[in-house]
Amino acid sequence: MLDRLPDSETPTPLFSVIVPLEYHRGQWERSWQGWQSQTLDRTAFEIILVVPPDFPQRDKLAELASASTRLEYADVAHDIALCAVGARIARGKFLFFTESHCWPEPDVLDVCLAAFGQQDVAGFSCSSVPICHNRLSIAEADMYEADIAYGMNSHPWRKVLDQCFVTRREAYEACGGLEPEFGHFSEWLLAARYATHGYRIGYLPEARVHHYYVGELGELKTFTLDFISGEIGYFNRQSREPGSELLEHPVEWVCRDNFDRDMARAIWRMSLRDAVTLRRVGGVRRWMLPALFGDGMERASSAVASITAYGATVVAMLAGSQARLGLCLKRYIAALIRYQRLTRICADRISGTQHAAVAENATVVTQAGFYPLEHYQGSAFRWSETEAAIRICARPGRLSVSVKCLAIRSLSHQIDLRFYLDGKRIPQGAISREADGFEVQIIVPPSGTARLGWVCLPFPATGDPRRLGLPVMRLELA
């Protein structure tokens, strides 16, 4: 329900300031007053207060409704979802997204209007001025301000800051807008789409918005979980839309198949057969726990790390220096992020909502025994471990699998490479050694699923303790 005058009775504003009333931290009235006090002509902007269902002070809101302050009662609670609702009903040429625990300097809209007239940009993120009231809020502000400074000044495209982001409406709509499904990760997603579509986002430090840091560990945890849930949810969608190629996949997502219990069991059995003949037990030890517990041990370890880091942060709040508190908080958030990523990935795996990339005839749906993506002399690749496997879905019958490798290690017979198909050794006659890898001829069974694995000697990289196998650039199925 929208409380407003008919559009015919109100002039079309230049700016629509969108204020979601979630997470207001007791500051929403100060936020509204700050926007009411702008030096820009009052008819040049509208304030849209987007109200969640559980907002406790609705009686006060009714007094604010006017031609320039509009109330939108939404049926969603998340502040990103509220922003999306506000953007849909906004009338301004420029959309200004902020948060209800933030308040602007009086000249913010004037500064933004002048900057749009002087620069050919699609939008700006303004300067976020931290407001702190306890020791944890100072540490919280220091942590986030460092990330904001990196995004605004160094990162090539991560320029959307939802607490103070102003954009041309046509650019926002052309890029699909904010997607509530992905929570606060949708800020990064929107920024990537702007970059892909050729829209430039600037940084406008002269436009200052004050940001109130609450300094509560519980709210920090909630925000982190929201971002991580959106991040993993987006990557799980396996989208190929414009902008998706810019988003960096976290290590936990890239290496998630290493904890697929079915694949771990296949590699473990393959390693057992190899150990019987060559007495190499490293692979048997490496894959025993994932084969038995999947990612259970890894999640338990990350949970312990998160709890330990939380305890250290609480102790630092009570008795540590400010520098110690800042360090402990960063360690806690890093441990929490890893735990939350592993937990969300596990939940998607159990629920069956993980998606695989689809190909018409054949596709690799799982890759277990691989390290994160690396770059060498301009080429991207992933080291496999000394034991690795891929799960292939394809039409039953003959299939040629090419394993293309980077020229980092010799692929001669001295690496003692052996291939297995569903646990059975593949004869040498079915394997062709090429200058840049191997081509393996296999027979896909009637089920349409096959597991191709390999075992090799480790590559002795100086100063690298990993069990490096093949430097794989790509896998080609024909």
β-sheet strand percentage: 25-35%
* CATH C-level of the largest domain: Alpha Beta
Oligomeric form of this entry? single chain
What structural class do the secondary elements suggest?
A: alpha+beta
CATH topology of the largest domain: Spore Coat Polysaccharide Biosynthesis Protein SpsA, Chain A
Description:
With 478 residues, the chain is α+β, with helices and mostly antiparallel strands. The chain has three domains: 2-214, Spore Coat Polysaccharide Biosynthesis Protein SpsA, Chain A, CATH 3.90.550.10; 216-248 and 295-355, no CATH class; 362-477, Jelly Rolls. Helix content is 38%, strand content 27%. The chain is built from 13 helices and 18 strands. The strands form two sheets. The chain has a nine-stranded mixed β-sheet, sandwiched between helices. Helix 8 (217-236) packs parallel to helix 13 (322-351) and helix 12 (296-319) packs antiparallel against helix 13 (322-351). The protein is elongated and about 80 Å long.
List keywords for this structure.
18 strands, 3 domains, Jelly Rolls, 478 residues, Spore Coat Polysaccharide Biosynthesis Protein SpsA, Chain A, 38% helix, nine-stranded mixed sheet, alpha+beta
Task: List the topology elements.
Blueprint: E1 2-3, E2 15-20, H1 28-36, E3 45-51, H2 58-61, E4 69-73, H3 79-89, E5 94-98, E6 102-104, H4 108-118, E7 123-131, H5 135-153, E8 164-168, H6 169-174, H7 185-196, E9 201-212, H8 217-236, H9 251-254, H10 261-278, H11 282-293, H12 296-319, H13 322-351, E10 362-376, E11 379-394, E12 397-405, E13 418-421, E14 424-425, E15 431-434, E16 437-444, E17 449-455, E18 468-477
Helix pairs in contact: 5-13, 8-13, 10-11, 12-13
